[in-house]
Records
---
Amino acid sequence: VIATRVRALRQLMKKRGLAAWIATTGDPHGSEYVADRWQSRRWLTGFDGSAGTAVVTMDAAGLWTDSRYWLAAAKAVRGTPFTLFEAGRAGVPAPDEWLRGRLHRGDVAGLGGATVPLARVRALESELRRAGATLDLDHDLVAELWTDRPAMPSAPAWRHDRWSGESTASKLKRVRSAMAARGAAWLLAADLSEVAWLFNIRGADVHDCPLALAYALVGKDRATLFIDPAKLGALDGVELRPYDAVAAALRAIPADQPVLVDPESVSALLARAAKRTIEAPNPITKLKAVKNRTEVRGFRDALRRDGVALVKFFAWLSRQQDLTEMAASRRLHEFRAQQPRFLHDSFDAIVAYEANAALPHYRPGASDVPLKPRGVLLVDSGGTYLDGTTDTTRVVALGPVPARVKRDCTLVLKGVIALSRLPFPRRTSGGQIDAVARQFLWEQRLDFGHGVGHGVGHCLNVHEGPQGIRTRNCTVPIEPGMVTTIEPGFYVAGRYGLRIENMVLCVEDRDGFLCHETLTLAPISPDLLVPSLLTADEKHWLNDYHRRVRRELSPGLDAAERRYLARQTRAI
Ligand SMILES: [Mn+2]
């Protein structure tokens, strides 16, 4: 069936005079998680991972995906016209570069310009220009061929005002002053979480994301929400127009009124509908990242309920035999779903046993494995609650664990503690403090291949910017009110994987410095630690933290669960 689709695509390419077709993974909003309607790369290739790019020429077809999906993608492309390229492996060309090598002067490559952010199209165009080739954005060939394409998501949207702590009128005021500072007459917001934040609305159009498909267009004295009218009634002071009317509205703006567009989320086609644009990060991204008092209170409450669910789960797990990763994952979801204000998981949980945990983004599925009474289970999961989003990783021993694993887990914890206690001056970015969480691994000539942390949305996306803790593209200062994760790990391919993840809130320290306060409440199992490798200060931090975890979570637990928690938070 994949071969037939590729054949049909090539026929259409020939008819339209295209030398290549590029299928990326994206929707019209630059989303990380994409609704089925826009899974055209999956339709074309049969590979269903959440990230990947396919390129089809008349005589070759390639699929690129990153390390978390290499195994799954290798299986998916078997028997199809696609060759797998392991993106990120040394010596493997990037798709743009590979394509450039196959195009000739005057060739045209096609791509669905409505679903690819402007910044991505720019990068591709500049690569193709070196071969004298150009891009056609206007004809989505795969959409033409995809006859049983899923419909537009149509979940109702709902008001989130009660949990948000700030009215849309107040948010609009702050957005407009940021627009004025940039010299923009209008602001187009395409990112679904930015639209949701601005208008205090939530939805259910994307799996495990509380988002409604919509655009926002903010002018100096009006604000328009473009959304399917069936999804939402009236909003005070906001003009509602149909979702599809956004391009025409942009075209109607006179050339002397520049529109601010964020090239990372606004699609190339939509950006080109405006006569004059200012390309800049959307100011909403940063306003949204700094949480207000209501949102912070919500995070604290949500993390307490989430911690109760986690302890109930781990206590239950400690009494089970003959479980698989999948069965454990389903039960974890049930414990969360019993908590008040729960909407849905914040992402597909990672429940990974031993070697599977060495793949940082592994999800149990086809390779569901039984859990045995030995080794380490890694659980990275979270919930989306009305009053906050959570993301927590813990590792637990299912039985005997080799000394080497305990040593590595202790090194990971030392990184968590060091960064959690670190005072830092204002204007410090995550890029500057990433190494603080790695230093103890580095001392042993060890490291891990992912970032230390990411921002977390408030009843929004589990991954949000602009701040983060990693070395690449991470120059935005961390400010009071920002909620970020600290999640160092360590992985031995084919053997085991370890990661400890807490959510932290940036707060004022003293003498003008800032620091982080840990929000996550869940035991860090002493069964996986070597106490002699911890300093007195580190033991003090852990014992203090565990006292707080016990105090906050015990009221939500039954007697057996409290006994489990007492054991897992015993002083060391
Ligand atoms: Mn995380």
Note: Residues 21 and 56 are 5 Å apart (CA to CA).
---
Amino acid sequence: MAALRKDGRVGAAWWEALDLQRIVAEVGTPLFVNSEAQLIRNVQRIRDAGRTAGLRHPMRLYPPLFPNSNPLTVHCFQELGVGSLVQLPNELELLQRFGFDDFIVSPGHISDEDVAFWSKTGYRVFLSSLDEVKAAVDLGAPAVCVRVDGLDSTKPGIKAAELPALVRLLERADVRLDSYEVYWGSGNSLEQMLEGAERTFGMFNQYFPMAASIDFAGGHGFSYDDGDDEQKHFGWLRYFTALTALAKRAEIPENVEFLFEPARDILADVGVLVLEVARDVIRGRETNLVVVNGSRMLMPSAQLRDRRHHTRFLDRSGQLVDDEGPGVRAAIRGCTVLRNDYVLPGEDYWVPDGVGAGCYLVISDVGAYCATQHMEFLNVPPAPEVLVDPSGVAHLVTARGPDLDKWRHLQTERKPLVNMMKGGGE
Ligand SMILES: Cc1ncc(COP(=O)(O)O)c(C=O)c1O
């Protein structure tokens, strides 16, 4: 095994084989770069694990669109036979425009109008409350799908205590339960996911023995800290091996389809963010600072979730800087005046000597919940996204937002809407 480097990684990541500077020369920085080959590998890892584990149930993957919302980046799902989970009508419209046609819908809580909208699409719509199920039943739906909140929390989903009432409601209306999705939160360990699966099978036998499919949702943990590119992925083989045994013990009929909605594990290590270092390291009494031309607004969820990402620097000619020699620990600061504009949480990123203005910072594992969560709160325009295909060709898939992107809907002058004074408008 190769020596553990200062950034904690073992061996080379996919992006280290790319001449990132050639892409930077075309589109500049900040820049998200995604690897289609890595995305395909991540799907295949799951499929292979299912096959090796001898999982007998038909398995279907439905990663949600919201963690990486670029239809060109996830376009290979179509050739791979991977579906998409959508939560909003605009996501469905977008994906259909790009030729996608295999969907499930997990919309959170929705109005009766939205229940009617989704019912008409004919896709499996996982409804999150008894009230929403009742709305679908009133519309004459012959079958429904439900989302169960395994955590019994304030998240959308029918609570465990409500399941007997759900069964009564469906029996009275003579409506079939087609499928149920159980969500157990995100970033779960193998043990947590298996505990969830066991309880999910329990629900099948107690409440839903007629279900044609069981949806295990997402939440399969991805270890951002791990230095090994394989180890950081969820333990799919052990998971499927144990799941197969659990399904057998629970006597789940083998024709019941198993659906999975992993996002982080499929998408996280597909993307890197490339930023340019704006100044030589600013050495402080307590904290050193590396100032880059990015902002926490490019990937706000890293700060929000206190998520550590691996970082590496490239020199001015785009070569990886050796991180085995001397250097300093530093915080990575964004380019706005806001006190808390730190690109990543923490103050201890390793900065080798020689890193300074004109060098580049590469942040790993940003393919899920990063570009897609970009906010223009600090007037920072959206970064472009590039997709490198398996033959090595880099494609622009999102153009850089122009400097005035934040104000793209700004009116050129005030437009009176309505007179709010009582008796006005006459
Ligand atoms: C219903 C549902 N499915 C799948 C996911 C994806 O989860 P993860 O990224 O943890 O795999 C989420 C995340 O919020 C979710 O709410």
Note: Residues 325 and 352 are 7 Å apart (CA to CA).
